[in-house]
Write a structure and sequence with these properties.
The chain has 5 helices and 18 strands. By secondary structure, it is an alpha+beta fold. The chain folds into 2 domains: 9-123, Roll (2,3-Dihydroxybiphenyl 1,2-Dioxygenase, domain 1); 143-290, Roll (2,3-Dihydroxybiphenyl 1,2-Dioxygenase, domain 1). The strands form 2 sheets. Strands 17-10-11-12-9-13-16-15-14-18 form a 10-stranded mixed β-sheet. A hairpin with a 2-residue loop joins strand 10 (171-181) and strand 11. Bound molecules: fe (ii) ion (FE2).
Length: 296
């Protein structure tokens, strides 16, 4: 991670849930490791050395409450804050919230669709308690690529694109002009801020849609994906989209509906992006094969 004025990776996500019990079952099936509870009463899960990656707040929204972006270190954090301020976007340092999240420094802002974002550096890590999934998963694919990706539903996708690129420093990977129904084309925009093909994707917000369409978690290979699909099926959870390979990031994945209604994509083989050499492409198909769904 450099001193460039760009967010580095999706470091954590907070979710407001209706049932912690339902989520505990779901997290177990996904292979997440229970971590230390938050001082704010949240139940937290680990995916790696980091003390937590996913926080569940029993507040009932059944939606994303916040997204945390790791800026790497103090210089990266200050550079991103300066970029956000130069763009005229309100941002506020919050040392009390930094303590609650277990990070060294933190600043809050809100994206154009009202999603609270947190810029930070210095997350607590716990090498003294090694990550151990309750499922046969050696590790999740995190590291410099962060915890995964999130698809946000934007009322004005052009505004969201401007915010995540100009204000936060992400870059467009590609676009999919997804034909959801004959004559109904939905533009999907995919943005990277590290080698992960996309950390944020922007979809047009449909009436009644949640803040996020899905959260993606990546595992090392097809066996981990297949076993997870077996577990999800055995548990009677709803498969929102069947196994398939995406056209742009080439990820092989399936989608399962979370207890909060939005989906979790569970996949492997996601493409790595080198910003220095990457060129933007456009797609008409969302998948090379599979990913059949009953509803969007
Ligand atoms: Fe995805």
């Amino acid at each position: 991670m450099t001193d460039a004025a760009e967010v580095g990776a999706l470091g954590y996500i907070g979710i407001g849930v209706g049932s912690l019990d339902a989520w505990a079952d779901f997290a177990h099936v996904l292979g997440l490791m229970p971590g230390p509870d938050g001082p704010d009463g949240s139940t937290r899960y680990r995916m790696d050395e980091q003390a937590w990656r996913i926080a569940l707040h029993p507040s009932g929204e059944e939606d994303c409450l916040y997204l945390g972006f790791d800026c790497g270190h103090a210089a990266g954090f200050e550079a991103v804050l300066a970029r956000v301020a130069a763009a005229g976007w309100p941002v506020e340092r919050d040392s009390a919230l930094a303590a609650t999240r277990g990070v060294m420094e933190l600043a809050r802002l809100v994206d154009p669709d009202g999603v609270p974002l947190e810029l930070f550096y210095g997350p607590r890590i716990m090498p003294e308690v090694p990550f151990h999934s309750p499922q046969p998963i050696g590790h999740f694919m995190t590291g410099a690529g962060g915890l995964g990706h999130v698809i946000v539903n934007a009322a004005d996708p052009a505004k969201a694109l401007d915010f995540y690129t100009r204000v936060l420093g992400m870059a467009l990977s590609d676009r999919i002009m997804f034909e959801a129904a004959p004559g109904v084309v939905i533009p999907l925009l995919f943005l990277h801020c590290n080698q992960r093909h996309h950390t944020i994707a922007i979809a047009p917000k449909m009436p009644g849609a949640k803040r996020v369409h899905h959260l993606m978690l990546e595992v090392p290979g097809m066996d981990e994906v297949g076993r997870a699909l077996d577990r999800v099926t055995a548990a009677g959870m709803e498969i929102a989209a069947t196994l398939g390979r995406h056209s742009n990031d080439r990820m092989i994945s399936f989608y399962v509906r979370s207890p909060s209604g939005f989906e979790v994509e569970y996949g492997c083989e996601g493409l790595a992006v080198d910003r220095a050499t990457w060129t933007v492409t456009d797609h008409a198909a969302i998948s090379v094969w599979g990913h059949r769904r009953e509803r969007i």
